[in-house]
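Can't attach files on this board, so I'm pasting raw text. These are the components:
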Amino acid sequence: MRLARSWTRGAAAGRHRIFPDLAGVNLARRLAQPLPQRGLTPARLLAELKRDLLPFLRDSGHPAFFGYVMSPPSGAGVAADLLASAFDQNLTAWRSAPGPTEMERLVVDWLRQITGLPEGSGGLLTSGGSMATLAALSVARAVKAPAGTVRGGLGLLGDRLMTLYSSDEVHMSVPRAAQILGLGTAAVRIVPSDARFRLDPAALEDAVLADRRAGHLPFCVVASAGTVNTGAVDPLEAIARLARKHRLWLHVDAAYGGPLGLSALHRPLLRGLEEADSVALDPHKWLYAPLDAGCVLYRDPATARAAFSARGEYAQIFETGERESFAFFEHGPELSRRFRALKVWMILKYHGAERLGQRLAEEMALATHLARLVQNHAELELLAPVETGIVCFRYMPAAARRGAGSRAVVPDERRRGGRGGDDRGRRAADAIVDRLNQDLLLALQRGGRVYLSNALLRGRFALRACLVNFRTRRTDLERLVQEVVREGRRLTTADRGRS
Ligand SMILES: *Cc1c(COP(=O)(O)O)cnc(C)c1O
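---
Top answer:
Structure tokens for the assembled complex are below.
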């Protein structure tokens, strides 16, 4: 416990290196030991941990860690996880863990309220957004598949595909789910996104109609509420209308953006989310829960039972009351499940929805501030509009800017259509800037003082900063910009020195 506290204090104060400066083989060698035959004293164990593990963590809670949409854990959540381990409850069903099961159902209902789904919707906590989406798409498939396929399998469909639709900015968990579910990755129809990286509803409808004409079975559309690359929110209301019209299951991947429903100021961004048949939402992404905490919500929990009905005699439930006979394994793929609800419960109880919503709003404002710093800097270029808490940009020395030409926040579609030599010139210049930014990213990550990740936007390499950390202040953003520019200049001069 003391170690947890001192680690957290170090993270909060920004005292740790964000990323270790050690090659993988050296790290492996350092940990390598034969299977321990005799136990150690707690003091020795702790000493080994401090020596062989602590210096080699990536500190995602550092105020200057902007790498991923992964908020640092609230202390209440950390304490809850420790308690959950001590209690060691197995949340398969009410019978195995009565109090914790009721607590999870309550917590899931609180999360439902954040999304605006109607009362009576329900679901369960998962390891994360990927599992939530896998569960949701299993249900969508079971509900929308022609009669007999839940038992007989998709082979009964012959050459016909059960197709689903999403934008080109969709998270990889969607094609992966299609792969795991045997739908085939080809069944995921990628609909182009618009200039703001949002799914284009007209293109969606065209794709659905084309597949119908070809004899396929369109069954589902996956919209994003906060895409992984740029944080864009798809036009959920328009997509919901089309989903109803074409009888498609609407799954909304709100793994990252869902918690914005807590901020009164930003709730309107999610309008239409309440129309979904299922939603994925990760408390470990932007609700300050320690990993792992995802959630899947079903508009009609009874639909889930169509997908998760297979069971063994040992799981027979003899209780008949509505609450006593409740089983999470009828709503998702897992049987044994950890008491994840405790940390989400503790976080919401300890901080309160109001304070959490305010903090989310502050992080949204930080993203806007960073975008402004980028736009006001002659050597930086914003590569996507800031829709939520993600800022995508690149370093662009003045000389390269003349070649690559763009000063476009939103890449101009026309410029992508071939314009002969002009276009080739731009592509070549872009390739140089891409390489420069790749080197820059690696140098920053290795430096261990700030941490960014990357995105590929319309073929351009972008530095990606995610603002999901309650420890981040404006000064951290100013330092980030300084570090990027300093590293960019260093690389540019080094390059010129070589040629
Ligand atoms: C992170 C993320 C996921 C996947 O969630 P995991 O918890 O990593 O499984 C899915 N969709 C979006 C938009 C995400 O940001």
